[in-house]
Amino acid sequence: MQEAFVRSEILNGIGNIHFFHPQSNSMPGEQLRNLAAEIEKLGKDDAAKVIVLQSEGDKAFCAGASFDELIAIKDLETGLKFFSGFAAVINAMRKAPKFIIARIQGKAVGGGVGIASSADYTFATENALVKLSELAVGIGPFVVGPAVERKIGTSAFCHMTINATEWQSAQWAREKGLYAEVCASIEEMDKGIQSLATKLASSNPEAMSMLKKVMWEGTENWDELLIERAGMSGKLVLSEFTINAINKFKQKK
């Protein structure tokens, strides 16, 4: 079985970040830290004018938090550290001085929706269904919530949060503003991404950096807010309810 990885390369001004995990591109803590570090690295590299974020495979973009790691959390400190990983990724995307294009080729769950929401422009295929499943396992989308709500609005965020077992279609996600474009195939999506990324790579870097700051105005407190939210999830994951719910989910897989 192929091992998890996060890697990047820069080609013709386009910084490409790829991540993979054999369990439906789920996110253990180390994977989250590596992804945040790679985003920060390309954000500082003048050779990268725009960033494209994508996962490997054609089924799931990201299945969210690793259930194996969630069930192994036994204290508040470990819980805070784990959920802070999602905070680090979102904040790295938010603060990167380059536009980030997300490539969503398959289903996005929980933290995966958070990552998609934190991109500045998101392409998806018709198979890229979305779900915020956190409440179904006894926690809530606390860390990703600000990013998701910023992108799709409070009403749609509440819809996804409360109806935690229901998939929403890619077209629904586009109508709510999560996806900028929904394509009929991966080939069509990749063609669109390459076209936009190429145009951005030749655009004024200073203008794009200034626009990025303007687009993210009002999120300056997220460094503290998302860590506070991580503590909320870290506390709930220790509860007997959540432990039992996660174990039930693991048995279904």
Task: Describe what this molecule looks like in 3D.
It is a single chain. The chain is α/β, with parallel strands linked by helices. The chain has a single domain (about 5-185), classed as 2-enoyl-CoA Hydratase, Chain A, domain 1 (Alpha-Beta Complex), CATH 3.90.226. Helix content is about 50%, strand content about 15%. The chain has eleven helices and nine strands. It has helices at about 30-45, 65-70, 75-95, 110-120, 145-150, 155-160, 170-175, 185-200, 205-215, 220-235, 240-250; strands at about 5-10, 15-20, 50-55, 60, 100-105, 105-110, 120-125, 130, 180-185. The strands form two sheets. A six-stranded mixed beta sheet has the order 1-2-3-5-7-9, sandwiched between helices. It has a three-stranded parallel beta sheet with strand order 4-6-8. β1 and β2 form a beta hairpin. The longest helix has 20 residues, at about 75-95. It is globular. The two termini are about 15 Å apart.
Helix coverage percent: 40-55%
CATH-assigned fold name: 2-enoyl-CoA Hydratase, Chain A, domain 1
Order the strands across the largest sheet as they lie in space: 1-2-3-5-7-9
Instruction: Give the low-pLDDT segments.
Output: none
Which short descriptors sum up this protein?
2-enoyl-CoA Hydratase, Chain A, domain 1; alpha/beta; 3-stranded parallel beta sheet; 6-stranded mixed beta sheet; 253 residues
